[in-house]
């Protein structure tokens, strides 16, 4: 073997012996695909089933906090009348499958995914309904923390709201107004959301669910 070839071979072998570089997004995808998450939150976190939250493109810090709180049983929320258990129960039940590193990685992976286009509502909301939602959102001062049209949270620990499932949005807002969801930074919402009527909540959820983040 020529000396240069020998050197090259040694270099290649040295490289191969190095541990694979950590890639949190890739590791997070693996967690997402293998720990049942996809069954409920859909491909890439963008196509949730039923009234479950979309996760694609959500703020990493917010996702991480919710995952930690759900695992610790701190996020309870309201009871699903169809099952008699809290809506979050199915998720809490699988959280023993993930550890702290998995949580960090899966939050990184999900926040790096492109948000999906809004799911059309049936029947489609009227222009008046959408305008009422936008007016309530602006009038109540939600913009200060969640940004214009729910598109630009003012802090990395605050969630995007645009394009989330309508029924999920209604539930999340109602739970915070009623003091059923108290984990994380939800207390920051309490002052504002207690001024929202059921009609305001329904209108804001309808409008926010149709704001398209995928094109932004
Ligand atoms: C059995 C269905 C189910 C499975 C499996 C599941 N989830 Fe969830 N997840 C839910 C539901 C339902 C909620 C909303 C609960 C509520 O309404 O309070 C939720 C909430 C969340 C939230 C909070 C979102 C927000 O906007 O506040 C995150 C983050 C999340 N899930 C990530 C995951 C990850 C990651 C996995 C896999 C490790 C997973 N979920 C597995 C059903 C599930
Ligand atoms: C002072 C800042 C602040 C204001 C004002 C505020 N929010 Fe929030 N909001 C938050 C924070 C922080 C969270 C995340 C709570 C957590 O950590 O669990 C949140 C969470 C939410 C969620 C749950 C999202 C999810 O994925 O589960 C919804 C929905 C929401 N806010 C809607 C609103 C609406 C509508 C208004 C106006 C009526 C509003 N917020 C006003 C800070 C605020």
Automatic annotation (TrEMBL):
GO terms for molecular function: electron transfer activity; heme binding; iron ion binding. This is Cytochrome c4. Keywords: Electron transport, Heme, Iron, Metal-binding, Periplasm, Signal, Transport. The keyword Nucleus does not apply. PROSITE patterns: CYTC. InterPro entries: Cyt_c-like_dom (IPR009056), Cyt_c-like_dom_sf (IPR036909), Cytochrome_c4-like (IPR024167), Cytochrome_c_Oxidase_Subunit (IPR050597). Heme c 2 binds at residues 142, 145-146, 189.
